C-alpha cells in the first residue's frame, strides 16, 4: 500500500527572525475550535466559568509549576477563548541541568529551553486531556494561537487594560441581533 502525504504546507504566523525563547512579555489569545462557547457565560461584565472554563483557568495557572522561567501576568477566560500575558525571563542556569528537581512534574534537560511555543503546546495538551478526562471528549482547541510581542511598558499597560475590560466589552461586541 502506498500512502502519500498531501502536498500542502502550513503557513506559520510567527516571526521567522524572532527568538521566542528570549526574555520578554508575550500577549496570547487561544481560541476553542470553531469558537465554540465552552468556558462559561458573561453576566453583567463578569465571566461565570463552566466546568470547562474552570479547568482551563486551573491549567493556565499551573503553567507556573511546569515552567520555572515564566511568570503569568493578567489573563481572562472568556466563553470561547483565553487572553493572557506570559513573561519569559532569564537564561536557564546551566548548573541546574544535572541536578534532580524537587518537583517531579518539571524535569530539566539540555533541551529544556523555554519557548512561547512549548508553553502554549503544554497548556493546550494538558487542558485538553483534563477536559476529555472530565467527560467532554469532543472538546478541541483551534489549531494555532495568536501572539503579540509586547515591546514596552506602555504597550504592556494597554494590553493589561484590554484583558481586564474584555468581559465588560463582551456584551456589546457579541450581542446577537
Ordered list of secondary-structure elements with their pairings:
Blueprint: E1 24-31, E2 40-43, E3 46-49, H1 51-61, H2 63-66, E4 70-77, E5 81-88, H3 116-133, E6 146-150, H4 153-173
Antiparallel strand pairs: 1-5, 1-6, 2-3, 4-5
Helix pairs in contact: 1-3
Task: Describe the structure in your own words.
This protein has a single domain (about 25-165), classed as Transposase IS200-like (Alpha-Beta Plaits, 2-Layer Sandwich). Helix content is about 30%, strand content about 20%. The protein has 4 helices and 6 strands. The strands form 2 sheets. The protein has a 4-stranded antiparallel sheet, sandwiched between helices. A two-stranded antiparallel ribbon has the order 2-3. A hairpin with a 2-residue loop joins strand 2 and strand 3 (about 45-50). Helix 1 (about 50-60) packs antiparallel against helix 3 (about 115-135). The relative contact order is 0.22. Residues about 1-10 and about 90-110 have low confidence and may be disordered.
Amino acid at each position: 500500500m502506498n500512502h502519500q502525504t498531501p502536498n500542502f504546507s502550513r503557513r506559520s504566523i510567527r516571526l521567522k527572525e524572532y527568538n521566542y525563547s528570549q526574555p520578554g512579555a508575550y500577549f496570547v489569545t487561544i481560541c476553542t475550535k470553531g469558537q465554540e462557547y465552552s468556558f462559561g457565560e458573561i453576566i453583567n461584565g463578569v465571566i461565570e466559568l463552566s466546568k470547562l472554563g474552570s479547568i482551563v483557568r486551573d491549567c493556565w495557572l499551573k503553567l507556573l509549576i511546569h515552567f520555572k522561567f515564566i511568570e503569568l501576568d493578567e489573563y481572562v477566560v472568556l466563553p470561547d477563548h483565553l487572553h493572557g500575558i506570559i513573561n519569559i525571563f532569564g537564561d536557564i542556569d546551566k548548573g541546574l541541568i544535572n541536578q534532580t528537581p524537587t518537583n517531579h512534574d518539571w524535569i530539566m534537560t539540555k533541551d529544556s529551553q523555554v519557548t512561547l511555543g512549548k508553553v502554549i503546546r503544554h497548556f493546550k495538551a494538558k487542558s485538553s486531556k483534563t477536559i476529555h478526562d472530565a467527560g467532554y471528549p469532543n472538546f478541541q482547541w483551534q489549531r494555532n494561537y495568536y501572539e503579540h510581542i509586547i515591546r514596552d511598558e506602555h504597550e504592556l499597560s494597554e494590553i493589561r487594560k484590554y484583558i481586564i475590560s474584555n468581559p465588560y466589552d463582551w456584551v456589546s461586541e457579541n450581542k446577537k441581533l
